[in-house]
C-alpha cells in the first residue's frame, strides 16, 4: 500500500479529505509525544508546572480525537470508501482512541511530579522504582516515535522491533515492582504515600506501551489488510516477521 493511493481519486475533494484525515492522526501523535516528553522532564525535575502542561496538552489531544471522528464520519457519509480507503478510516478511528488513552496515561504518570514537588525533603529519584519508571517512559517515547513514523511511511518493517520493546517494558515493570515491594517490607512507612504514587505512575507508563502495541496492530491492518488483534506479543511478532518476509 502506498500513500499516493490517497491522492489518486478523480474527486479532488475526496483526496483532500483522506489527506486531511491522515495528517490529523499524525498531528495528534505529535501532541501525545510532547505530553510524554514533558511528563518525563516533570518527574525528573519534580516540576509541577511542567506536569500541569501535560494535562493542558491533554485537552488538545482530546479535541484532535473528536476532529478525527468528524473527518471519518464525513468521508464515510460523502464518499462511501472501500478497500484501502476504508481501512484508513477504520485505522484512524482505532489509532485516535489509543493516542487519546496514551495522553490520559501520560497525565497519570506525571501526577508523581506534582506530588513530589510538595515534599522537597524527599527527592523523587530516591524512591524505589524511580529508575524503572524512567526507563519505561524512555522506551515508551522510542516506541511512539517509531510507530508514528511507521504510520507516516505506511511501513511495517519496524513493527516487530516495537513488539520487542513492549515485552522489555513488562520485564522492567516487574523488576521495579519487586524493588518497591522489598522497600515496603523494610520500614519505609513514612514513604508509603509516595511509593503508592510511584506504583500508579509505573503502571500508567506500562499501559502506554500496550496502547502503542495496539497502534502496531492497526498499522498492519491499514498497510496489509490483515487482522492481527488479540494476539499475544510472541505470535504478533512472528506474524509481522512472516508478513514482512513475504513482502521482500
Q: Can you characterise this structure?
A:
By secondary structure, the chain is mostly helical. It contains seven helices and no strands. The chain has helices at about 10-45, 50-80, 85-115, 130-155, 160-185, 190-225, 235-245. Helix 1 runs antiparallel to helix 2, helix 4 (about 130-155) packs antiparallel against helix 5 (about 160-185) and helix 4 runs parallel beside helix 6 (about 190-225). The mean pLDDT is about 95. It is found in: Cytoplasm. Homodimer. This is Phosphate-specific transport system accessory protein PhoU. Belongs to the PhoU family. Keywords: Coiled coil, Cytoplasm, Phosphate transport, Transport.
Summarize the structure.
Homodimer. It is built from seven helices and no strands.
Low-pLDDT stretches: none
Classify the secondary structure makeup into a structural class: mainly alpha
Please give the number of β-strands.
0
CA-based gyration radius: 20 Å
Specify the overall morphology.
globular
Mean pLDDT: 93
Number of helices: 7
Strand content: under 5%
Coiled coil: 33-67
Subunit structure: Homodimer.
Pfam families: PhoU
Keywords: Coiled coil, Cytoplasm, Phosphate transport, Transport
Amino acid at each position: 500500500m502506498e500513500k499516493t493511493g490517497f491522492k489518486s481519486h478523480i474527486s479532488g475533494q475526496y483526496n483532500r479529505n483522506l489527506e486531511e484525515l491522515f495528517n490529523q492522526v499524525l498531528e495528534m501523535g505529535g501532541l501525545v509525544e510532547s505530553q510524554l516528553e514533558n511528563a518525563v522532564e516533570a518527574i525528573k525535575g519534580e516540576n509541577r508546572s511542567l506536569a500541569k502542561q501535560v494535562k493542558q496538552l491533554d485537552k488538545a489531544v482530546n479535541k484532535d480525537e473528536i476532529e478525527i471522528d468528524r473527518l471519518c464520519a464525513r468521508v464515510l457519509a460523502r464518499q462511501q470508501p472501500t478497500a484501502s480507503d476504508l481501512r484508513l478510516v477504520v485505522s484512524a478511528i482505532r489509532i485516535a482512541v489509543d493516542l487519546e488513552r496514551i495522553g490520559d496515561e501520560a497525565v497519570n504518570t506525571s501526577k508523581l511530579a506534582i506530588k513530589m514537588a510538595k515534599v522537597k525533603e524527599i527527592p523523587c529519584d530516591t524512591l524505589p522504582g524511580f529508575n524503572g519508571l524512567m526507563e519505561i517512559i524512555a522506551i515508551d517515547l522510542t516506541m511512539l516515535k517509531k510507530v508514528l513514523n511507521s504510520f507516516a511511511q505506511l511501513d511495517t518493517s519496524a513493527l516487530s522491533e516495537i513488539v520487542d520493546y513492549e515485552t522489555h517494558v513488562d520485564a522492567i515493570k516487574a523488576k521495579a515492582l519487586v524493588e518497591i515491594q522489598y522497600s515496603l517490607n523494610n520500614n519505609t512507612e513514612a514513604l508509603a504515600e509516595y511509593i503508592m504514587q510511584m506504583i500508579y505512575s509505573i503502571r500508567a507508563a506500562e499501559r502506554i506501551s500496550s496502547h502503542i502495541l495496539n497502534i502496531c496492530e492497526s498499522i498492519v491492518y491499514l498497510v496489509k489488510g490483515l487482522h492481527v488483534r488479540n494476539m499475544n506479543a510472541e505470535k504478533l511478532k512472528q506474524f509481522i516477521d512472516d508478513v514482512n518476509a513475504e513482502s521482500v
